[in-house]
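We modelled the chain as a single entity of 427 amino acids. Its sequence is:
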Amino acid sequence: MSIRPLEPHDHSEWLRLRRALWPDCSEAMHACEMDARNADARAVFVLPREDGTLGGFVEVAVRDRVDGSMSPRVAYLEGWFVEPDLRGQGFGRSLVAAAERWGLAHGLTEMASDAVLDDAQSLVAHQALGFRETFRLVHFLKSIQALLTLLILLGLTTAASAAAVTELKILSFNIWVNGGRSLSNCIEVIRAAGADIVGLQECNAPTAQTIASNLGFYAATDNDASIVSRFRILTNIVASGGRGVTIELTPGQRAHFFNCHLTAYPYGPYDLHDGKTPSFVIAGENSTRMPALNQLLTAMAPYVSAAEPCFLTGDFNAPSHFDYAAFPWPTSITCTNAGLIDSYFVAHSKNRKFPGPFSFNDPGITWTPMTNEEPKGVFDRIDFVYFSAGDGVAVKSSTELDGRNSINPWPSDHRAVLSIFVLSPRR
């Protein structure tokens, strides 16, 4: 058996092996990470068996700076797996060697990787291949609610003494497979924006915890759609199709926050570009993205109708009907009908509408700031910050973020959306 690059017909076998390596990864995240649009910055090599199945694979990508390296760019082992019956025969070493050759061909001089602390087998395997350990990181969490209770009992403060929050910065940010070009830069994007609550897409639990720890935030983790918050997360909300939490802004002042990452393919704007009929495109939307969104909106309904602010962020992988002169994109229409308001549209209702293809740098466009990541030249606003109507919430501003007005180099293949709200707490 010889190592070779991944070929199109390997897709189902590659997915099978990925499921074995990452059993907790969602299907949406698998689909996103296997997206061929990212091919320029990453490669996959496989170990074919004689029967046509695959016995192992390695995924390698380019990352901007990693801890322990002085190089500005390194090759990074994103995934490495050999099936049990083939281990101990040198196939794992051969897969990594193929990744190393790819790195050298791309002008890289170092390769980095990672492993879970208690995965002794992986640690030994990395050391056997010449990797040196740079450092170990353990995340900590401590509740300080007891301190507040004590201060109240001593009469040194009261539950109502904290001033109500009157301005809230909400960020929707697809960080491109757990950090894209640089997780450090993703963190700096959030810090520079002054975001209070962030809906993160393509962000698994360890990555969300790392982001939260660096910012001093709370985290509600997920395999794909995680949430980090400057304010204390009170409770998790059961929400199929996404992630939901209740957040305490101040004692007695709450907000409800939901985040989602809808399926990427089939991608409606591509179908329109390729000449498919509107009915074909809408049928595709209804069969792919709408089931998960409907589940999420059903879970959100009591919070949207309550007298407390409710927010929804997400990479919807679909445009808005507000951006098209005459195309009823189901995802945005359904959100509107559910009592949610598109904050960016409120602030920029006079932006031009489709038809006439959007340019990558047109106002509001979030997919994508990187033209080399878009093979068909199709650009749209597909990332959103919604808020509930009639809950004392008003839009102060809403802006798309990228390297022009935020951290440069920009770390993701999506622009982020920062919406700033004015809150009028009810007495």
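As a brief sanity check on the tokenised model: The domain at 158-423 is CATH 3.60.10.10 (Deoxyribonuclease I; Chain A). The first strand starts at residue 4 and ends at 5.
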